[in-house]
Amino acid sequence: MPFPGCAARQLVKYSSPAELSGIPLNIQSAPAPLAEAPASPGFTRKFKAYVALTKPRVIELLLVTTLPTMIFAQRGFPDLGLILATMIGGALAAGSAGAFNCYIDRDMDRLMQRTENRPLVTGEVSPREALVFASLLGALSIAILWFGANPLAGWLGIGAIFFYVVIYTLILKRRTAQNIIWGGAAGCFPVLIAWAAVTNKVEWPAFILFMVIFLWTPPHYWPLSMKYSDDYNAAQVPMLGAIAGARLVSTQVVLYGWATVVCSLLLVPVAGAGWVYTVAAALSGGWFLYESHLLYNRAKAGEVSNKVAMRVFHGSISYLTVLFLALAFDPFIGGPVFA
């Protein structure tokens, strides 16, 4: 939130008897008062600004995929200390990447209505403070993953931060409409970290979960960019949902949606997923595809709206949440579909 500006003082000019009589007066107007410097934000406001830099809503979504993956890899609850180290380390790694992203994109954020209240735009946090904060979070996250889980989890944490900051933010985001496809791979690292934390290796089930999130990211994000197309165009960010027609975008959403659902079902034969996961993946996937096809049909008829696009966006979040909750419950209820 921007700092409140100093209220302008209104000078009231009283008429003298001479002025009332029509005699001109040579009176110089009073100089305008000097603007006061904005006061530094208090501790609470500063703390909230730092939290906002980490993009907590993104962290929430990443953590939704982390714990279920650990439970599925363990086929039960892992050690509490390992869970805490992985969750905290993963959250700090995501927060570090988010803060670096805010630092790099601060020029672009001020041009977009959706991001104009971010702390670096409002001045609540300086660029130097944000850079130091992001670096400290990153170092702390790697230390926690490395020593609290294992070195492999630490290396994957480094890879996640590097991919999001360098590959996506610095290289892809402003250069190609395919930015969210390849850059979205950074959001897939939490499942690799979670699996590695439990097993100290990365196996095929982890790669399948990686691909589920990788394929899910475009149909999740493109509908949002359709709604905020004016923002992305103003900032000259070539997001597909902003620069392409609704019919092309909705077609891509449907194709990636189908690929996501099919990939999610591969966990049944490859990893021995049970009936809980299988039924949840099929039903929630079917609903996600229904919403995606609805967007396509509306776009084909020239009736697409932000409301329909955002239904797909919010529906994609619900789909992924249901999928991973089922993954967490699966080891405790029933047995594998293919015994």
TrEMBL record:
Pfam families: UbiA (PF01040)
Assigned GO CC terms: plasma membrane
Enzyme Commission code: 2.5.1.141
Residues annotated as transmembrane: 58-77, 83-104, 130-149, 155-172, 179-198, 204-224, 245-268, 274-296, 308-329
Main location: membrane
Annotated catalysed reactions: heme b + (2E,6E)-farnesyl diphosphate + H2O = Fe(II)-heme o + diphosphate
Subcellular location: Cell membrane
Membrane topology label: Multi-pass membrane protein
Protein name, per record: Protoheme IX farnesyltransferase
InterPro entries: Protohaem_IX_farnesylTrfase, UbiA_prenyltransferase, UbiA_prenylTrfase_CS, UbiA_sf
Keyword annotations: Cell membrane, Heme biosynthesis, Membrane, Transferase, Transmembrane, Transmembrane helix
EC class of the enzyme, as a word: transferase
Pathway linked to the protein: Porphyrin-containing compound metabolism; heme O biosynthesis; heme O from protoheme: step 1/1
Family note: Belongs to the UbiA prenyltransferase family. Protoheme IX farnesyltransferase subfamily.
Note: Carbon 2 of the heme B porphyrin ring is defined according to the Fischer nomenclature.
GO BP term (any one): heme O biosynthetic process
UniProt-listed HAMAP family: CyoE_CtaB
Record gene name: ctaB
Functional description taken from the UniProt entry: Converts heme B (protoheme IX) to heme O by substitution of the vinyl group on carbon 2 of heme B porphyrin ring with a hydroxyethyl farnesyl side group.
Molecular function via GO: protoheme IX farnesyltransferase activity
Species: Arthrobacter mobilis
